[in-house]
Amino acid sequence: MSYEAHFRVWRGDAEGGELRDYQVEVNDGEVVLDIIHRLQATQAGDLAVRWNCKAGKCGSCSAEVNGRPRLMCMTRMSVFTPEETVTVTPMRTFPVVRDLVTDVSFNYDKARQVPAFVPPKGVAAGEYRMRQVDVERSQEFRKCIECFLCQDTCHVVRDHEENKTSFAGPRFLMRIAELDMHPLDAAAEVGLTRSSSAQEDHGLGYCNITKCCTEVCPEHIKITDNALIPLKERAVDRKYDPLVWLGNKIRRRDA
Ligand code: SF4
Ligand code: SF4
Ligand code: FES
């Protein structure tokens, strides 16, 4: 079946823009990205859109479809009725470059701020050995395709530009959780407690576990339940653990 769909697409740049209306042909089995490409090919040759794999794996085609953060290449046109207007806008949390393309460098800055894996002493690279049971929990987080839809959705930064300096966002708090669960990470040996650092340096306390990030993740990673809540629990455990408290007190006295 083919039909003409009514699309409203945001057109503009950092200076400002508007929603423009288009009638575009839709065929069986197509996804929103197909329609955006047809629009580009037939009516709006200068429409800017970022994409790469068209298979839900590169994380490039993130945008908001009818207000919901989604991958355009994984959003089937069959979820809309032929009469429905489909509105496509750029991710709201990041500055617009042009049309549907946003500047996501906020995320690269946050990635750089997370301390890297600390290799264990006395084990040469290539000789790391881990048991499956020890990586079972954190392996889920490696499915991340860095689409930044969770970062776009999180209200802590979506509605509050001022929080961007102190909050890493769900994707990078999840990265800290992953390293904290890593069986070979030797962060503690260099004096780094990842859960405490998440709280003190990366804004874990801003997260009020609304789970909105989890709802939009195209990889279905349980970001809140499996990464953020355990990280919060570890941070709190450390803070109120009487042995940790005593150790800190003795260290302070020695200093
Ligand atoms: S669960 Fe936390 S990180 Fe995820 S969207 Fe809600 S506040 Fe943001
Ligand atoms: S955790 Fe999910 S939503 Fe967030 S960047 Fe990774 S794949 Fe995208
Ligand atoms: S084009 Fe790669 S995820 Fe959509």
UniProtKB/TrEMBL annotation:
GO terms for molecular function: 2 iron, 2 sulfur cluster binding; 4 iron, 4 sulfur cluster binding; electron transfer activity; metal ion binding; oxidoreductase activity. Residues 5-92 form the 2Fe-2S ferredoxin-type domain. This is Succinate dehydrogenase subunit B. Keywords: 2Fe-2S, 4Fe-4S, Iron, Iron-sulfur, Metal-binding, Oxidoreductase. The lineage of its organism: Bacteria, Bacillati, Actinomycetota, Actinomycetes, Kitasatosporales. Belongs to the succinate dehydrogenase/fumarate reductase iron-sulfur protein family. Its cofactor is [2Fe-2S] cluster; [3Fe-4S] cluster; [4Fe-4S] cluster. It comes from the Bacteria. The keyword DNA-binding does not apply. One of its GO terms (cellular component) is plasma membrane. SUPFAM superfamilies: 2Fe-2S ferredoxin-like, alpha-helical ferredoxin. One of its GO terms (biological process) is tricarboxylic acid cycle. Pfam families: Fer2_3 (PF13085), Fer4_8 (PF13183). Pathway: Carbohydrate metabolism; tricarboxylic acid cycle.
